[in-house]
Amino acid sequence: MVKIGNIELGDFPLLLAPMEDVSDPPFRAVCKANGADLMYTEFISSEGLIRDAAKSKQKLDIFEYERPIGIQLFGSDIQTMASCTEIATQVNPDLIDINYGCPVKQVACKGAGAALLQDIPKMVKMTEAVVKATHLPVTVKTRLGWDDSTKNILEVAERLQDIGIKALTVHGRTRVQMYKGSADWTLIAKIKENSRIQIPIFGNGDIDSPEKAYEYKNRYGVDGIMIGRASIGYPWIFREIKHYLQTQTLLAPPTLEERLEACKQHLDFSVRWKNEKLGILEMRRHYTNYFKGFENFKSFRMRLVEAPTQNEVHAILDEMLEYYSALV
Questions:
Q1: Parallel, antiparallel or unpaired: strands 7-8 and 3-4
Q2: Of the candidates 247, 278, 294, which is a domain's last residue?
Q3: Which of 12, 70, 106, 118 could lock onto 97 through a cystine, CB 3.0 to 4.6 A?
Q4: Residue-range definition of the domain harbouring residue 59
């Protein structure tokens, strides 16, 4: 049984990665329904939370059915991170996660996210301040290092465990790599081999199929896997991986009806959570992923992204059911 503090996650948990502009409550709902064991909010700016910025505050929205759910924070100032941890704790998540992995310029160039990989003493101090600011378990997501010459994750894992984090997720790339090339899990395996490490270690990067999840579980010995980009428009990856881990057989892919139903549920939650205009607008980035590879989808997509109301989107999705069912 893998545990983060007192949170029981099963024998080999599958985690949904925190993804900016993706892992909001509507997206998390469809992933939870398909087997995600632990989910995180989109990352939240500590500066934004302290300033009471509306966008940052809305990202604190969590729902009972999502549990266990973690709130992920990022920032460059130690005191600000401690203060926003206190704010985040008040909405009663199950844990607090610190982002030391985001590679994008807007974050890293402000001294937050993966930038902390260049200043391990500051990373340690910041983590310690967050741990002291909450009674909740604190976890960390990070990368192997800043670049190939500073892959310091083995030292980082020990030092962060020593100051009280309860789990560590490692993306198998450096910051310089961004999302290019292949993720290297060999150093993640070395963390697990270190007898000093007692906390759960989760691997992240390039898991896009049940077979690969099974292979990496056995090859690298991680306690669980975090899945990010492969879940966008395909929340079924969680149930498919779970089935494969148990049986070494592949589940049939989701039916057309399942795809359409998940898309509708995602849209309806988005509209309830934000409002019709914003909910429809933010849903537009997901249609292509839900129906990737579908013949003649382009014309439907154009209509979906132009549809101004929830009812019109539903009508187009119903039309898609008739069209694609007739092709079979």
A1: antiparallel
A2: 247
A3: 70
A4: 3-247
Find the angle CA(142)-CA(143)-CA(149) to the nearest 5 degrees.
140
Q: List the one residue out of 35, 156, 14 whose CA is nearest residue 98.
A: 156
Q: Which of 31, 84, 102, 263 is catalytic?
A: 102
List all residues 6 or more positions away from 140 whose beta carbon is below 8 Å from its beta carbon: 97, 98, 100, 127, 160, 165, 167, 168, 169
Please tell me the pTM assigned to this model: 0.94
- In this structure, are 147 and 208 located in the same domain? yes
* Final residue in a domain of this structure, among 226, 247, 268: 247
Site of tokens 């930038």:
115
For the question of residue 102 being annotated catalytic, the response is yes
Tokens of 8: 């029981």
Same domain? For 146 and 58 the reply is: yes
Residues 6+ apart with CB under 8 A from 130: 73, 81, 82, 85, 96, 98, 138
**pLDDT in single tens digits along all 328 residues of the chain:** 999 999 999 999 999 999 988 999 999 999 999 999 999 999 999 998 988 888 888 899 999 999 999 999 999 999 999 999 999 999 999 999 999 988 777 787 678 888 899 999 999 999 999 999 999 999 999 999 888 888 999 999 999 999 999 999 999 999 888 888 889 999 999 999 999 999 999 999 999 999 999 999 999 999 999 999 999 999 999 999 999 999 999 999 999 999 999 999 999 999 999 999 999 999 998 999 999 989 899 999 999 999 999 999 999 999 999 999 988 7
What is the C-alpha to C-alpha distance for residues 316 and 267, in angstroms, rounded to an integer? 13
